[in-house]
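Example record

The entry below shows one chain as it appears in the dataset: sequence first, then structure tokens.
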Amino acid sequence: MSEMELSLLRQRSVEAIKLKAARGDLHTTVAIGFVRSEDDRIELDPDLRIREAIASVFARFAEVGSIRQVLLWFRQEKIELPTAIYEDSRRSVVWRLPTYNTVLHILSNPDYAGAYAFGRTETRTRIEGGRKRIVRGNRREREDWQALIVEHHEGYIGWDTYDHIQRVIADNTNMRGGMVRGAVRRGEALLAGLPRCAHCGRKLHVAYSGSDGTIRRYHCRGAAINHGAEMCISFGSLRVDRAVADEVLALLILLCH
């Protein structure tokens, strides 16, 4: 009976959370650039420096149309952006040079368009090696969000502008395969999506050049993308691909015998 009662209480709690979210009244944290008012509403941060910094991200993206170009400009100009940190359940703001994910989060967060969104990610359970593995943070398509209320509060941009930004980001994205384990990718490079940099451990990218686009190189530009730094390493693919192909073929021949 006690287990059944606990289950019922848990279900009621979950339903209460969903109902509160559907009304736009469920606030766990608020995005940087916003504060929660005394009557539990979301308002623009009264700090002018924070508001101007957030607005500058959207203004710069409107000019260049690329997350990476926005990032490079902020880092080259040494302009810091506000970041929220939490200690002892209290939020404070620190200023840091942005990373790629900082810019992406601001541009893709519907809060900045004055919308209330809940349930944009989900938790999935799968079996790996005979054991249960819980993976959190899987993004849902917009139509699958648990709640979306447009014009919920004052934002930094309008909803139409937010929609336009998401389309531009999607059009610029050609590496969605990064969300999966590695291969298979477009192009002729044998190891696309598989090797990692020996210096920083990031996945290597593949670049195609030449008049017919058949000259291939592996290079590490994770630090360049995320922090505007120089590339780590770069090398041609021919010898590496051939060496790996020879080893695979030798192993297959051995197995066949």
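Notes for this example: The first helix runs from residue 2 to 22. The mean pLDDT is 79.
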